[in-house]
# Entry
Amino acid sequence: MKTKTAFHGWEIDQLLKLREQQPDLMEHAVRRLMHENEAIRWSVVVGAYRDGQINLGKAAELLDVTEVELRERFIELGIPLRVGPADLAEARPEVEAVRAWFADSERTEES
# Structure
């Protein structure tokens, strides 16, 4: 029978140091943990969404659900939805993507 071991604050300290010293190793460990543990994946992704580090589409992709499904789930849970860019810097890439799309569609129509 397995016994639970106590979690120590020094372990987090060492993991943070490991992230600085061996980022590839830490990235591998985090990706594996998130892949293997749905509760951790959900918490990390939702936390990143709430902190504005990722958008709804990226959160849905990481959680392997559609954006509509995740939007509905967030509404059920009372998680505020961020709709649209928060500032001009966030909006610029979206504007450029729309401009490029229109330019491509105009070229296609001319052909």
Summary: Residues 31 and 84 are 28 Å apart (CA to CA). Residues 83-111 form one domain. The two ends are 72 Å apart (CA to CA).
